[in-house]
Amino acid sequence: GMALRTAWQTRDFKLLCFGYFVCGFHVLFVATHLPAFLLDQGLSATVGTTVLALVGLFNIAGSFTAGWLGGRYAKPYLLAGLYASRALVIVLFAFILPVTTWSAYGFGMLMGFLWLSTVPLTNGTIASRFGTEHLSMLGGVAFFFHQLGAFLGGWLGGLWYDRAGNYTGIWSLSVALAVVAALANVPIREYLPQAKEQQPC
User: Fold this and answer.
1) Residue 101: strand, helix, or coil
2) b or e along 25-57 (b: 16 or more beta carbons within 10 Å of the residue's beta carbon)?
3) How far is the C-alpha of 172 from the C-alpha of 188, rounded, in Å?
C-alpha cells in the first residue's frame, strides 16, 4: 500500500497510467471496429480479418524492438515517439489516403508494430523509476488504466457509430488522445535524480 501511495503521489506515475489508458483505447477500438469500418469502405470481411492477423504478426516484431530500444535509449522519449507515430499512422489511414486493400494492409502492419510496444517501455520505466520490488503491483495498477481505456474504446466506438453512422469522430478522438499521450510522456523522469553530496562546512 505504501509503495502504491508513494508512486501515485508522483506526476510521472499518473502520466504513465494515462498513456496506458490511451493505448487501451486504441487497441480495443481497432480490434473491435476496424473490420466494420473496412466493410463500410467497400472492402471484404476477408480483408478485415487479414488486417487483424497482420496486427498480431507485426506486434511480435514491434514489442521485441521496443524492448531492445528501451535498454539503450530513454524509455519515456521512446513512448512519446510511439504515441506520435500512432497519431500519424491513423491520420494517414483514416483521413488522407484512400482506403484500399493495400492501405488497410499497410495500416495493419504499422499499427501492429506499434500495438503493444508500450508494454516493455512502460513497465521498464516503472521499474527504473520506482524499483523492481513492487513492479508487479505497480505495473498491474497501470495496466488497469489500459483496460479502462480498452472498455471506452470498444464501447464508445459502437455508441458513436450508432449515433452518427460512421467512425470519423472516433478516429479523430484517437488521434487527439495519441498526441496528448505523446506530450505527456516527454516530461517523465526515468530515474530519480541523485542526491547531491553535502559540501563540508
Assistant:
1) helix
2) bbbbbbbebbbebbeeeebeeebbebbbebbee
3) 26
Chain CA centroid to CA 197, Å? 39
Q: Would you state the pLDDT for residue 197?
A: 41
- CA–CA dist 16, 187 (Å, integer): 11
> How far is the C-alpha of 2 from the C-alpha of 171, rounded, in Å?
39
pLDDT in tens, 50-74: 999 999 999 999 999 999 999 999 9
How far apart, in whole angstroms, are the C-alpha atoms of residue 56 and residue 188? Answer: 29
CB atoms within 10 A of CB 88: 16
Grid cell digits, residue 127: 521499474
Q: Give the separation between CA 18 and CA 196, rounded to whole angstroms.
A: 31
Q: What is the pTM of this model?
A: 0.91
